[in-house]
Specification:
single chain, alpha/beta, Rossmann fold, seven-stranded parallel beta sheet, three-stranded mixed beta sheet, 10 helices, about 40% helix, globular, binds nicotinamide-adenine-dinucleotide
């Protein structure tokens, strides 16, 4: 892959930045171009060590600005695109859905168009210089809607998005699929479950639990805390993405899960138990006293779970971290970050 130029959208975000580091380690000579709007969810410090290094470019820009995007494709001629950029927080999509339409749907469309114009000689015929091109779209398991107590999502699951966020991701997925079938654009797509790990934005569940616990505040859990998610350690996700990019066949879709299905209350309990050991409260009481149930999120999906059998059988990928191992690394990170904040 040494002659490749990999454009990574959303590389200042949580998963994108972890991936940028992982890709840099595994492909030290490949040109990486990070394109990111630097929204509230971004943090340039996540990739500060790579800026001004060889084979690395950072461009601040908006994927829903078509002229800028076309300029980037013209100048850098990327051979691979990994598309992480999105508005990603469900609560924000409920409060203000329009930006999700603009970034997640319109932005994905402009990327598809830029890739099509740059890579394709004609429909289903790639230019020679782009014969190994890939358009890799990072999707979510949330596009499949909510499960009951049984069953798992897989690559054949029906779309049934329930929030403006998941609807915008589902719409983008359909555009990606259509460009593969109509134009032969060499696409890849994966649906991952909830990611966790160091450097996630404060607004997400695990950082919120740790921060509020350490600040002596109520630890907010939606509804009765019984909503179930499948938790994927972010480094394991990055390994899966790299593998799919290298070995996936155009048009393929993969589901990526962490084999760690847990209710929010179980996650919270696991975290407070660790905090009780690693950073006991001054009065000796357990942090569990601070758990408090708050009004449920509108349209809150009950359960997501992933069957990651296809990626295991076809690419030999399985998560390396158990939830206990991943959580421990995560808590150590946030303890250092939040301990001295009031
Ligand atoms: N975090 C998860 O648990 C999870 C689960 C499933 C799928 N996903 C998907 O993975 C991808 C990355 O998620 P994340 O958690 O790292 O998100 P994030 O919110 O941490 O980061 C998103 C990044 O995209 C950038 N961005 C937003 N709008 C942009 C625009 N218009 N133009 C250019 N850049 C823009 C932001 O500045 C930010 O750096 C998203 O597509 C998300 O839908 C995430």
């Amino acid at each position: 892959m040494e002659n490749n130029r990999v454009l990574i959208t959303g590389g200042l975000g949580f998963i994108g930045a972890h991936f940028v580091h992982y890709y840099r380690q595994t492909h030290p000579k490949t040109d990486i171009i990070v394109f990111d709007k630097n929204t509230y969810a971004a943090d340039i410090d996540r990739i500060a060590d790579l800026i001004n290094t060889d084979h690395f470019t950072y461009i601040e820009g908006d994927i829903s600005d078509q002229a800028t995007l076309n300029g980037v494709f013209e100048e850098y001629q990327p051979t691979q695109l990994i598309h992480f950029a999105a508005e990603s927080h469900v609560d924000n999509s409920i409060a203000g859905p329009q930006l999700f339409l603009k970034t997640n749907v319109e932005g994905t469309f402009y990327l598809l168009e830029a890739a099509r114009r740059t890579w394709m000689q004609s429909p289903h015929e790639l230019k020679t210089a782009f014969k190994n091109a890939r358009f890799y779209h990072i999707s979510t398991d949330e596009v499949f809607g909510s499960l009951g107590k049984e069953g798992r999502f897989n690559e054949q699951s029906n779309y049934a998005p329930n929030s403006p966020y998941s609807a915008s991701k589902a719409a983008a997925d359909h555009w990606v699929r259509s460009y593969f079938h109509t134009y032969g654009l060499p696409t890849l797509l994966s649906h991952c479950s909830n990611n966790y790990g160091p450097h996630q934005h404060n607004e997400k569940l695990i950082p919120t639990i740790i921060r509020t616990a350490l600040n002596g505040k109520p630890i907010p859990l939606y509804g009765d805390g019984q909503n179930v998610r499948d938790w994927l350690y972010v480094e394991d996700h990055c390994i899966a993405i790299e593998r799919i990019l290298a070995e996936g066949t155009p048009g393929q879709v993969f589901c990526i899960g962490g084999k760690a299905e847990l209710a929010n209350l179980e996650i919270c309990t696991a975290i407070v138990q660790q905090l009780d050991k690693l950073h006991p409260r001054e009065n000796g009481a357990s942090y569990s006293e601070q758990i408090s149930f708050v009004k449920d999120r509108l349209g809150h999906d009950y359960r997501y779970a992933i069957s990651a059998t296809k990626i295991k059988n076809e690419l030999g990928w399985e998560p390396k971290h158990s939830f206990e191992e991943g959580l421990k690394k995560t808590i150590v990170h946030y303890l250092a970050k939040y301990k001295n904040l009031s």
